[in-house]
Amino acid sequence: MTVTKHDIRAILAVAAAIGLMVAYRHVYVEPRAWGALCLDMAQAPFACRPRAALLWLQHWQLWGAGALALGFWAFIGAPFAVRAAAVALGVIAVLNFNATWGMVGAALGGWAWVEANARTVARPSSRAGARG
Description:
The chain crosses the membrane at residues 60-82, 89-114. Keywords: Membrane, Transmembrane, Transmembrane helix. This protein has 6 helices and no strands. By secondary structure, the protein is mainly alpha-helical. It has one domain (5-126). The radius of gyration is 19 Å and the shape is elongated.
């Protein structure tokens, strides 16, 4: 398998998305103090709004559902960015306790990513063999 600059950029983007989610959860979701601060949303700091959205998405399994949808799309032939997004969102879904669908989405996205890369690498050599 050949790793291109395109793949490296996508891997860095996936790692950045995962890192940002880990950092956000560490700072705003996991500490009990934030839970207490965010009880009354009318008087809560602004940071409680994205926290509430994150937890709502987590509760309704939408992190995993989104990862699964992107994974299926990637698997049936989506653009490269969708394959990388499926991997990123799949891992983020697992971080947000939507592991069942998140892992399937990440696996389908990763599979599509590797398979498309292998197809691209194999294509030029098969054309050269057909000519010779």
